[in-house]
Amino acid sequence: MKSLITLLLSFTVLLTACSEPAPVQPNPVVAAPLDEGSFVINNAHIIDGTGRVFEQGSVVIKDGLIISVSEGASTVPGAMVIDAQGKTVMPGFIEGHRHLIEGNPDQWMAERAAANMQEFLDAGFTTILSAIDAPQILELRRMLAAGEMVGPRILSGAFMPVAIPAPSDFTGDPARTDVSRPPARPTVAAGAIPDADTIAGVQRIKDAGYDMVKTVVTVTPNGPEIHTLTVMVEEAHRLGLTAIVHAVSVEDTLAVIQTRPDLLVHTPHIGQLTEAQAQTIASSGIPMTSTLGTFVPFYDANNLPIFRDAQPYPWNTLSSAGQGPVNARLLWEAGIVYGYGTDTSFLPRDTFAHELKALHLTFSPLDIMKILTINTATAVGLETEIGTLEAGKVADIVMLDGDPLTDLYDLLNVTLVIKSGKVVVNKM
Asked: Spelled out in words, what is the top-level CATH class assigned to the domain 4-18+93-386?
């Protein structure tokens, strides 16, 4: 059996960024730094993440936490003041399924990590779930938490197989030849992994310091996947880890919910959900992230359709571009907690625009505000800390030039980002 690290690397999607970011141009809002004491944002159009909208309101922040959110202006003696000038203020965005490290991990850490973390902040993202990356992700997480690098907070997952698949010579993007998609679905049972090996593997993930254990499930005829997944989930929970599952077909999603994982990191995009099936999945209480844009073509500078690996688009996957959003809406109507995720490594702002295009097929701007904030916070287990602008929550805040409830793509017009009460992006 391959080592855990080998398996992790073989299943990690490492993609090439589309373009280089523009350099950040610092432009202080006030003369004094805003990372200490208290400050007030006044004259803001506030979308607080709970469904409330304040046409002209204020947010008070002290020691990294939100003290109050209210209509009208607030005055705090001695506090610094930011005049939002009518711009939109909302919770920091949360990316619930991302792959960060590209190419050689050590080289990426040395040459790209700092710039890439700033790119996420520039796009408004203050929290990221890294749903499998090279082990260097743990050092990146440590550096960000320690303040040695500026960027979003990171939750990190490591891969754990639940079966031994048939050998394959394919080494490209696994979404191109997904074995969950007929006619490629397996017709014989995959090999079983001993329970003791699964338990030991989850323990290694815990000992390494990861937050989550992730697996990929394509159920084979009379195969071991659901039994082994049950063992994995139970052991993860015993050790205090979050268990997350990649299942992309209706068949596989219905199977894996029996095991009670904490998060489904894909919308089923292979097969049409019935209303009854959508209700069954939603009733499990397991949150789900979107990843709808994966099968919607990107277009390069020559107007050629490309896949998320920047190679020519595989048209045999196009049905998923429509099936995913339809199934997503059926699940939403059934009451699922539906969050935001992309499962890609394109530049954050480019990917954000692309995922919004897919989401907007079946969701309103108000729905998408909830998807980006409190729903994704719930999906990654941080709903008591982030995801809304409420007293006592961590001060993760994005300011936008425009109103995304009127024009959804104003979400791309980020002018100010505050993470944990510190201004980390300023384009005012």
From this structure: alpha beta
